[in-house]
Amino acid sequence: MKEKRTEISELGEFGLIDHLNENIKLRHPSTIKGVGDDAAILDKGDFVQVISTDLLLEGVHFDMSYTPLQHLGFKAVAVNVSDIAAMNAIPKQITVSVGLSNRFSVEAVDALYAGVNAAAEHYNVDIIGGDTTSSRAGLVISITVLGEVEKGKEVLRSGAKDKDIICATGDLGGALMGLQVLEREKEVFMADPKMQPQLEKYAYVTGRQLRPDARMDIIHELRDLNVVPTSMIDISDGLASELFHICKQSGVGVRIYEDKLPIDKQTYDSAVEFGLDPITCVLNGGEDYELLFTIKQEDFDKLEKHPDVHFIGHVTKSEEGKLMVTKSQTAVELKAQGWKHF
Amino acid sequence: MKEKRTEISELGEFGLIDHLNENIKLRHPSTIKGVGDDAAILDKGDFVQVISTDLLLEGVHFDMSYTPLQHLGFKAVAVNVSDIAAMNAIPKQITVSVGLSNRFSVEAVDALYAGVNAAAEHYNVDIIGGDTTSSRAGLVISITVLGEVEKGKEVLRSGAKDKDIICATGDLGGALMGLQVLEREKEVFMADPKMQPQLEKYAYVTGRQLRPDARMDIIHELRDLNVVPTSMIDISDGLASELFHICKQSGVGVRIYEDKLPIDKQTYDSAVEFGLDPITCVLNGGEDYELLFTIKQEDFDKLEKHPDVHFIGHVTKSEEGKLMVTKSQTAVELKAQGWKHF
After folding, report:
1. Where does the chain bind ATP (chains A, B) (predicted)?
2. Using a CB-CB distance cutoff of 8 angstroms, which residues of chain B are in contact with residue A19?
3. Do the bridges between strand B140-150 and strand B132-134 make them parallel or antiparallel, or are there none, so unpaired?
């Protein structure tokens, strides 16, 4: 009898994660929340501790042929800090583990760690440990971040309520277009190594891809303005996918407006140049590491004049579905294409 | 001008880690200890939190051709819990990240997680998060463990004092001999796939390699006996290497006795069969995940009758060096060969 073999691709990334999480039992009352949000939550008295971890693999999450090591070190920390931001928490400590193949020199490792250290300084976190080992198969980076927030101020994906206002920070789709540009220039270079990459006019979008910044500035400003979002998530897999997470976990629907979606001019122009629909890039482009959150209507005044917070729609009842109102005033159903690595 | 290129092998694993840690600055007063021990230590009021992380890579830390996935999942958790034990702390939560290549089926992932879940139950820890991603290059497992201990009861590598008694748990060298056996049987199988591996008579040593158990039992017993070791480390790189860590960080010397070193009969017999010196296996064999600790002389009575704690020597002044007294009563200098992955 042949053993059953189910391919991971049959489940997909989210399906596999759901499948693995089915069997998890929580044993400690101090574990307030395990898997299922941007970070886990532990009870530490007056504060809760939030914990998140990311595993970054060469050839899957980054391409060494166009990724400067210093930027990669910074980004590896930033994407983890972004998960802590998404809990409305402040990062405090990180562990940094790396697997290095022998094609790495000490100078290359130093460049990687220069980026890690710059990010640790930028986000005011302590590097408290890690593991350094050789790798037979490319660069591996695993970072775990610990953060803290006053108990009751932590924000989950599950708190959005009907009529809340949906906010997105910064602009979206840029990191995806940066990736497109970098991939194209790589192909040009591989076809003819004498060709130099043309990146000047794409500086903003390539910067979005190579060196994203977690929006801790927004978390500090929300605190100063005394606004606690009702739900929050960071935009790592694309706006539509993150909206779906909030809808699923809050049991709500959403209505967003195409003409409210924030897009940078360079992102827009690059998308057109590449024959892509700019709005699709905004909805499904990954790795922007902006924040998506919902606020009560009464908090609108406090954020109304914020130059970098955009009000893209509102929360609805679950049965109203997940809709985008286009510029021609048609309501279309949102699709979460997400960011699939499998 | 050519850029300088320094090979990692010039520094070695410990050299590279020291080099990278030179630039680390701690910013938060709640970070009591960062890198440099089995785990980091954070101030959480009446308790301290300890954190450790390990990165395990296929082809470096494990060989899929003879490692059952369920054992691998268990071991990945156990080696992390062992670091928490070495701080005299109790593990509470873990995060588990895995990178999976597409040759993995869902059934294979389930087997890996069956081991992870069995270990979570065995060590009474909650799985609170992780990251699941595809890998272009073999299986990657990254685990971070969080533990807790009453403030003041945490045990560092740095507290050993002259005349303290040196204790080692269990027996040593078995995991190394298990690895030798498994590697030999793999070669036999590769030369002639019709040959079946002969593992029955090596069940103990192969078990030590494939499914080690962190000594949380000892930590609970020390607590019950009201013994707080003066220093402690887990034996992952070999007894000699761990003794060197304690000597360096405590500023002391050691004198151990060959005839006191704990070795199992099967380990001894396998070493002889392989033409290896059994005592070298005990001193330099890695991955036993036993505990090495020092106690004050006044605590000796409490542990004297413990069947699984062995008194292998005593701490001396730094200038007396690191010595082993052989069975022929000669004092020889210890060498820390350690376990080099680079």
Report:
1. 113, 130-131, 157, 236
2. 106
3. unpaired
